[in-house]
């Protein structure tokens, strides 16, 4: 508690120092500043900041913070920026001591493998902790799997075998061990375990509306099937269950350009329900709550949190409204709160 009080006092003095620098810079820009011996240059700013916070701040962060103030005094940089520092993976949390009361960020790792090409962007990143995998998908259709060392395991460019549809989201099917991705009109199921140069998988099409997001419903009751949620551009949320039998019984001939086999969407039972009056921006299933969540920029039906059974009936759903809607949300199990971002 004493450390917290000391920090708040130091932070208040630091904010006063920043305000003084801003006023000084504003006067200089207006030609009103006169030398009175109390002006704050970088050396004084650095010395005062180090006195207030000690080793919790690094020289390069103080320098960057001061430069931001001087270059644009009207846009005050957020004060947490000055506390961000990196620790080597080998040091561990035990050696952080008092510094951990600020912001601890692990050492950044850069992936040198070129995942996407120019004019392409990453649309989804999914971590699979049990298999130590990270999956990425790009808008133009490059599906990539990385192993624990963050080296490219292998990738498959789905875009080159399809029309100009864009991939809008991805996830991992834990039971069937497939990567699932959605485009504007199809559902892609990629067998990432297939040998490089021989990518196998399935395509479910056509989907009537434009699919915008996808997520896996995590259930361990049946190892031979997986369930996914999808959202589209008309406010519908879909529930699709895929079994290993579907890969055998419903497939048609593989397209010549790839080993991907086509599955007719009409052969699947895909319950759907209109929950929003605008695009569905994100869907997510929370195992701890046994509920799914979906959000939209819809100002009336902005966020829905309920049992997936509600997608198969017409009973009322738990929802709330936010002006201009909700763009993102997540659940914190430790705090037992849902957080939304508009």
UniProtKB/TrEMBL annotation:
Keyword tRNA processing: no
InterPro entries documented for this protein: WD-EF-hand_domain, WD40/YVTN_repeat-like_dom_sf, WD40_repeat_dom_sf
Keyword presence, Repeat: yes
Keywords: Repeat
Protein name per the record: WDR64 protein
Highest classification ranks of the organism: Eukaryota, Metazoa, Chordata, Craniata, Vertebrata
Chain's gene name: Wdr64_0
